[in-house]
Amino acid sequence: MSEPVPTDAELVRRTVAGDRDAFARLYDRYARLVRAIAGDAGPDRAEDVTHDVFLRAYRSITALRDADRFAPWLVGIARRVVQETRRRPVREPLSSDVADGRPPAEHSIDDADERAHVLALVSRLPEEERRAVQFFFLSGRDGTETARLLGRSRSGTYALINRAVGILARWMGADHTAGEVPR
């Protein structure tokens, strides 16, 4: 006899309780739907949008008031991310004037190399900025939790994160303006 298929609501409750496998099942259940919506952002952006949608959903799943409405809630997130993505210009490739002398983007740096490069740059940040980036972006904690771990106010934490993002952006040759960190 096979195990009954859990409902979305059950998987949401298990995710909130810390079961990452439950969220993986939600991902498997809805990834095709989200990819279809993400396609509206452009074929070259659909995969990034899909990842962003599920990351946002995971980070804010505790805000979902009715666990039975996971699918419509996820679709709403997807539509919002698509709209935001359409307003942004296509991401510029990495600049050739990065301090460590990496080759220009024309040399087709693949995603794994780019991630490794960014992580290497994060490791060069001053300790407090590095910890803020690790907690907020790499560990997926929200601003309140990051502030608590750093022993700072929320606004002080966001200022620290923005400073770190600004440093990273300069090192990568990209533009950065304060206030871009999602709260």
UniProtKB/TrEMBL annotation:
Residues 99-108 have a biased composition (Basic and acidic residues). Keywords: Sigma factor, Transcription, Transcription regulation. InterPro entries: RNA_pol_sigma-70-like, RNA_pol_sigma-70_dom, RNA_pol_sigma70_r2, RNA_pol_sigma_r2, RNA_pol_sigma_r3/r4-like, WH-like_DNA-bd_sf. The keyword Transmembrane helix does not apply. It comes from the Bacteria. It holds the Pfam family Sigma70_r2. Residues 26-88 form the RNA polymerase sigma-70 region domain. NCBIfam families: sigma70-ECF. This is Sigma-70 family RNA polymerase sigma factor.
